[in-house]
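Person: Please work through this fold.
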Amino acid sequence: MAKTPQPGDRAPDFELEGTEGRFRLADHQGRRVVLLFYPGDNTPVCTKQFCSYRDNAEDLGELDAVFVGISSQDLDSHAEFVAAFYTTWLFKLERAILRWLVAKPSTDDEAAELAQGGRHSFAAWTVEASAPNQLLMCDFLGNTRSWFMVEPRHGGGVTRLYFGSAVVARDADHGPPRLGFSFRALLGFHRRYSRALLAAARARLTTAGI
């Protein structure tokens, strides 16, 4: 049985496939490396916890370390989910509107690059945080967040797809942060549209036999 590393021990070398290519610990010899382990089946990480590293980026930056997220989830299925989501007929309508209204064009090839970790922006969104099985996107105005997660079921089970979309409250002149009137008025539509987007992505994956 392999010995469990103890504090102060030399870390054993390993290699893993990642969203930005293959990672090998030995390639970072001489630097601090922080390994962030994410839960497996039936323990999805909430968006608040997932963003905690982003919220403490200044403190973490003082460590001058390489941060690597590690999960037991399947990398390919996550990339396929993200690519399918942004290339459904329904989301293409949104992309067309964004191209016309705010001059934010996008293509299916760019969606595929984003899914594979080769891009950090797509249409009106930028990547705010990522892990092997998760992705958090922020719109260019900072008003909304979109969260993706894939949770494969091992042993022949069904893979779960998670999508979360949040409208962010803005700071008010007096009192706690709150949503503007237009966002509050559209919350009902926002919920229904988010469910429709997830259903369209699931249908696209099912049709492709993924």
Q: What stands out?
A: The two ends are 37 Å apart (CA to CA).
